[in-house]
Design a protein that fits this description.
The chain is built from five helices and eight strands; from the N terminus they run αβαββαβαβββαβ. The protein is of the alpha/beta class.
């Protein structure tokens, strides 16, 4: 079994243990929002909001995993103020693989299954969710690789994130940062 399928199995086993149901759609590997939209159209559509995940860091090497609607443009300066970090830049591919066990093009909140925090331990990254994205009926993310898309309800996404030991920040990217 290849590494991505092994990781996916670990993820789905964890979701089963915490009693979260999802639906997964298989497609060719995608690396951009445009490719994901084309794959979705080719699969007859996938209901719900389609999301992208950003892995960012500041100069103090604090990291954040931020999930937003796939079409949202994100101003990193405003985002840094909203999540309480310094000036943001994107994390490196090596850092992404080392910390979350995924590669660029496969960034997903589901990667938290690879970085679970033990009770009373300090979380090694901030997890932030766009408030408007959370209003969707379903949210779609890659299941640790980019050859599939998994739909989950926003409520179950919160349960999953908390089960991994994180308390997500819900950020309103439409409001000006202070």
């Amino acid at each position: 079994m290849d590494e991505s399928r092994e990781s996916e199995t670990k993820l789905f086993d964890f979701l089963d243990r915490i009693e979260i149901s999802t639906k997964t759609y298989r497609h060719e590997p995608v690396f951009t929002v445009e490719e994901a939209q084309a794959a979705r159209d080719g699969a007859g559509g996938m209901p719900g909001g389609h999301c992208k995940s950003l892995f960012v860091r500041d100069k103090k090497k604090r990291r954040a995993l931020v999930m937003v609607d796939e079409n949202r443009r994100v101003d990193l300066k405003s985002l840094s103020a909203l999540i309480g970090m310094g000036r943001l830049s994107f994390g490196s591919a090596d850092s992404l693989k080392e910390m979350l066990g995924v590669i660029p093009g496969s960034v997903t909140p589901f990667a938290l299954v690879n970085l679970q925090v033990l009770q009373d331990a300090e979380a090694p990254l901030i997890v932030a969710l766009d408030k408007s994205m959370m209003e969707e009926e379903l949210l779609n993310y890659h299941p640790l690789h980019n050859a599939a898309t998994t739909a989950i309800s926003p409520q179950d996404l919160l349960v999953f994130i908390r089960a991994c030991g994180y308390e997500p920040l819900i950020v309103d990217l439409d409001s000006p940062a202070e």
